[in-house]
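The instructor's notes for this session suggest beginning with a concrete chain rather than abstract definitions. Hand out the sequence below and ask the class to guess, before any prediction is shown, which regions might be ordered.
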Amino acid sequence: MKIEVLRTKEECGTVAVGKAVELLREAIAARAHASFIAATGASQFEFLKALTKQTSIDWGKTTMYHLDEYIGLSEEHPASFRRYLRDRLIDRVHPGTVHLIQGDLEDPFAECRRLNGIISLEKIDVAFVGIGENGHLAFNDPPADFHTEDPYIVVELDEACRKQQLDEGWFASLEDVPRRAISMSIRQIMKSEAVVCTVPDKRKAQAVKQCLEGKVSPAHPASILTTHSNAFVYLDTDSASLLDKKS
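After discussion, reveal the predicted structure:
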């Protein structure tokens, strides 16, 4: 794992995109196709803004997989991650194939099975992810399941996770935040050939320290990234402020 600390969150997003473009272009050059996983949330704003300005990627030769989605929200809901991805990524660059999580279907377990059948046939070149305030990776809240081989799983969202969604302005009240979601599993994320993790903002500083300098543990789900040989973590000075070593 490589950690890079940038001065601002805008620089954090821009430098992370440089690595993302490199990885996508390499995959397309090698196989005429690239598959990637897209994350959402406020921490990805600058990253996606910079990514969608790239003109050197043949987006028609890419396949996008969705990292996580709330159960019970329609795509039209302001907090829907499908809506987020359409507005900030899909409708701007038009990936050749898009696999979104239908979180509002009656049977979320059947939706997991559908997605599992699709992604299990695919090599993922790069996962774009962040780290939650509670250390979660995707919606794998602590203690995360480090063992399941299922690519997509139904998860319970803890209060810290739900409060983060409220504080970021996606919901009017804590009661409005769903209690369950469909999430890509830890093991599926770790199967990606490369991981680009973008984590700006002071509110992430404690989670960054616990996950990047502490023991690898389900109590700090994103700590698993430290074991990935091709993971690139981009921080700003605020999110890196508690690290003992700021490389």
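Then share the key points. The chain has a mean pLDDT of 96. Residues 42 and 168 are 7 Å apart (CA to CA).
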